[in-house]
Structure formats: C-alpha cells, structure tokens
Amino acid sequence: MNNIKKKQPHKVVIIASFGAKSALKTAFMPANLKKRYNSCKVVLFSNSNWAPWAKLMGYDDVKTFKSNFVLKMQLILARPSLVIDLRDAAQFEALLTENESLNFKFNIDAMEYLKAQDEVIAEGLKNYIIFYNGFTFLEDKAFENKKWPYEIEFLNTYLRENNKKILYFYDQKKPAFVNPQVHFVDVNKVSSIKLIIYLEKAQAFYGTDSFLSLLSAVIGTPTTILQGPTRESNINLKNVQFLQSSVPCSPCNDNFECKDNVCMKVFTPKELIPEAELSI
Questions:
Q1: Span between the terminal Cα atoms of the chain, in Å
Q2: How many CB atoms lie under 10 A from the CB of residue 86?
Q3: pLDDT tens sequence across 56-94
Q4: Position 184 confidence tier, pLDDT thresholds 50, 70, 90
Q5: In three state form, how does the secondary structure of the chain look?
C-alpha cells in the first residue's frame, strides 16, 4: 500500500471476491484508510453477499457484483478516487503482512447493542464456552471435510471435567445431543450483534476453521481453531491458537476429491481439552 499513501482520495473502493471468513482478515482496512485519508468514504464491492457484517466492520457501503461487466458499470457510477483490488492474491497477502494483527472496533449502534445484550442476559448464560463445528446443513464436500467427527465425545468429556456450560452454535440442523448444560443456538436465527455479544461473554471458543472462529479471535475471546484441509490463517493474535493437522496431506485447501478427512480425525477430545483449558 506504499504506492497509495501519496494520494488523498475522498472515496476508496475495495474490490473483493472472497467469502466472509477471508473478508474478516481485512476488517482493519476501513478504519486505517479513513485515518490515513482524513475520513474518506470506504465502499466495498464484493461478489459475496455479506453486507450486514461489512457494515459492522466499518464499510460505508457495500455493493454486490455478479460479473465483471456489472462491476465495471458500478465503478463508473461510484466514481472512486482510489481502487484497491483484493482479487489479486499477491496484493491481498501483502496487505495482511503489512498489518500483522486485526485491531478494530465494530460499528454498532449503542441502542441495538444494549437491546441484544439484554436478550443474552435474560437467557441466564454465565460461565460458558462456545463450540462450533462448522456448517451442519450443507452437503458441500468442502464443508464436510472441515467437520470434526468427535464432537459428541468432546462435549461429554468436557462436561465431565469442567463445571461450565456449553453454548453450541449450529446451522439449521440441530445436533442430536441432550444435556441440560448445553444451550443450542442456531446462528442463522440470531442477529449479528447478538452473535458478537455471545462471543464477547464466552470464556473460550473451540471450533473448526470458519468465519465464526476468526470472529471470536478478533473479538478477543480465547480461541482454539482446528485446521485440517485449510492452512493456518495469517493473523497474529495472542488469544488464538491454530492446531494444524499433522497428516502429510494437510493442508489440501478443501480437496473435493477427499473421501476420508483423516486430517480432522487426528484431533482427539482429550488432546484438545488441555489446550483449551490453557486459554481460559
């Protein structure tokens, strides 16, 4: 970004072609650009629909494009004075290297935050950890390969050894697990702000590589992330530990041809719990 420091743009457009998890790594950009360029307007153009989260990260506006032609037309109408194209993998990695850690505050309306906080308090949740095993309703092989097969064993082992409740995040399909100490939350049915509050109040977060895992890390919650198909995210935060699978084929970057995700099976519940307890 050294080549753009000389300019003083009034509107910066960031073009991205990745999902919310990768976009979270660029959450530092709106605040940094506004500070550098005297409160310029920062607009995100993305081919993924995650506008609610982008707004919370500080982007002034979010536009979705379905093709390069549509993107060109939108850029003409937007009339930006500076364009940063993160579709270039080398430029994206350079930005992450330049900014060694994510350090930003969510752009949340105070009244909305207090309302969501009251809802969480009313649920009576105290002294809890969060567990999330990624998407549970998609049949996409890439998501299946990331799933950890020993979640039930982990829940049972953790509850035996710790006097804490577990907040289990899931997506639409509720797991067949019954225990009064486990509180289930469908992440598709709660607001983004409420998810943030759940994460803020948790004593620890354990999960597979996902947007929510990185969100937990950015918020500051002690976070343990299991990684098999994916490689360690290049963010430098003291409260997060990435456990990379030890099998030779890991990471494979979501190999669709994989028929047996041995990379995730090497993580046993008893190996994970001591690591997690060190974070609390």
A1: 37
A2: 22
A3: 888 888 888 878 878 888 888 888 888 888 776 666 666
A4: very high
A5: CHHHCCCCCCEEEEEECCCHHHHHCCCCHHHHHHHHCCCCEEEEEECCCCHHHHHHCCCCEEEECCCHHHHHHHHHHHCCCEEEECCCHHHHHHHHHHCCCCCCCCCCCHHHHHHHHHHHHHCCCCCEEEEECCCCCCCCHHHHHHCCCCHHHHHHHHHHHCCCEEEEEECCCCCCCCCCCEEEEECCCCCHHHHHHHHHHCCCEEEECCHHHHHHHHHCCCEEEEECCCCCCCCCCCCEEEEECCCCCCCCCCCCCCCCCHHHHCCCHHHHHHHHHCCC
Can you say whether the dihedral through the CA atoms of 188, 205, 114, 125 is positive or negative? positive
Pairing of strands 61-64, 11-16: unpaired
Q: Which two tokens stand for residue 12?
A: 């910066």
82: left (phi over 0), alpha (psi -120 to 50) or beta: beta
Residues 6+ apart with CB under 8 A from 73: none
Q: Which domains does the chain have, with CATH numbers?
A: 2-98 (3.40.50), 110-277 (3.40.50.2000)
Compute the C-alpha angle 36/74/191, nearest 5°: 70
Return the structure tokens found at 141: 């092989």
Q: In angstroms, rounded to a whole number, what is the distance separating the alpha carbons of residues 133 and 154?
A: 11
Q: Tell me the C-alpha distance between 125 and 114, whole Å.
A: 16
pLDDT band per the 50, 70, 90 thresholds, residue 1 = very low
